[in-house]
């Protein structure tokens, strides 16, 4: 069998806890101690920075402009992101794909500067990807998820750009799943345990952990172990 399916990877690092802590820290400054509701959290996941800021400001009626919110969030995250860990199973999967010469790319809604913070202790690992695309700072991208732009642009930057139906996306957020499907791609969802069944069911495949992923289900080389 010839294995050649490109893989577009998102959510390799477990950062949603940090985004929640950031939002709740800012909310406390303006409206007192507030727990981020799950409904707002679902809307927030996967959004580019400007859209995230607008969402939180609108949902909680904060007296801030989006750029002011983003500036505050960045200061908080500078101390938190360098210590984030990768999603369990991510490194095993990426090294396996790389060893089998499968084209892989990273498509993240983060800005390039934010991603550098997230990857502080994983620099060598992220060099395994053919290319990276940063949704919050790439000049070619005008719309964030759930629009398909980030995945279509990511696919277009492979030396031999694949058709969307030949691409497989890994996601953790409903907005990302919608974006991948809108792009005409297959998508494996590894969601938060609180995610409802309706949101999970939209994905091509939903897993509780990336450790459960079986590459051969998508025509990829199986793990050796």
Automatic annotation (TrEMBL):
Q: Which cofactors, by name?
A: Mg(2+)
Which key words are in the record?
A: Hydrolase, Magnesium, Metal-binding
The protein's matches in SUPFAM superfamilies, at most eight in alphabetical order, are given as: HAD-like (SSF56784)
- The EC code for this enzyme is 3.1.3.96
**What is any Pfam family matched here?**
Hydrolase
Q: Is the keyword Magnesium assigned to this protein?
A: yes
Keyword set includes Transmembrane helix = no
Protein family (similarity comment): Belongs to the HAD-like hydrolase superfamily. CbbY/CbbZ/Gph/YieH family.
Q: What is this protein called?
A: pseudouridine 5'-phosphatase
Q: Name the lineage.
A: Eukaryota, Metazoa, Ecdysozoa, Arthropoda, Crustacea
